[in-house]
């Protein structure tokens, strides 16, 4: 019989709640994520998926409970300064400078990270190689999302926090997203995704956040019942 303790989860959410603007958004959330793990957040509009990711990114603090990274509470400043270096954040705001070239919009972040050489291969993988020298204002919405994904690869941090990463992507783009997530996890990376759209992520834990307000009759329900006819 082995007396070795099971390894600590890399990330542990222990009974976490979150209040925003005096409103309770998240209640008693528990999750345990090991290296290579994936967590998919689903739920209705306004259920708190982005709030959950923002809290993990340190933009807001839990009102109760703890977020532990390697067993340490990330809200402690000494821990947070190390923890935030683990995070790669992809949000709906793309932080793309339209006056920069496509390549420079990735290189800029890679350089801040003290790294070099990965930006162009990342853009090529995401299907933007031929646009690397173009100004970013030329990009379509889906291409902007691909640029954001190329940044994840160039920056190469272990914990990915992805808010609606497949929005605006075509089918090939979604397949690429699924591929880079799978590859990241094979290297021990962690992926936490908030999404409304189906994304194939093998063995992912799924956390469905409950709606924040009791559901009222919607126009869709009325249409289904033929009440608007
Ligand atoms: N900046 C803010 N200040 C205060 N409350 C906010 C703020 N942004 C969002 N909220 C509140 O938090 C709730 C959860 O919002 P959040 O964006 O986390 O939901 P979501 O599940 O990501 O929604 P969606 O599916 O529409 O993206 C919302 O109902 C809203 O009332």
Automatic annotation (TrEMBL):
Q: What is this protein called?
A: AT1G63270-like protein
The residue range of the signal peptide is none
Q: Which Pfam families does the annotation name?
A: ABC_tran (PF00005)
One GO term of the biological process aspect: cytochrome complex assembly
Origin: domain of life: Eukaryota
* Residues of the ABC transporter domain: 11-229
- InterPro entries for this protein: AAA+_ATPase, ABC_transporter-like_ATP-bd, ABC_transptr_haem_export_CcmA, P-loop_NTPase
Molecular function terms from GO: ATP binding; ATP hydrolysis activity; transmembrane transporter activity
Q: Which UniProt keywords apply?
A: ATP-binding, Cytochrome c-type biogenesis, Membrane, Nucleotide-binding, Translocase, Transport
Give the species this sequence originates from: Monsonia marlothii
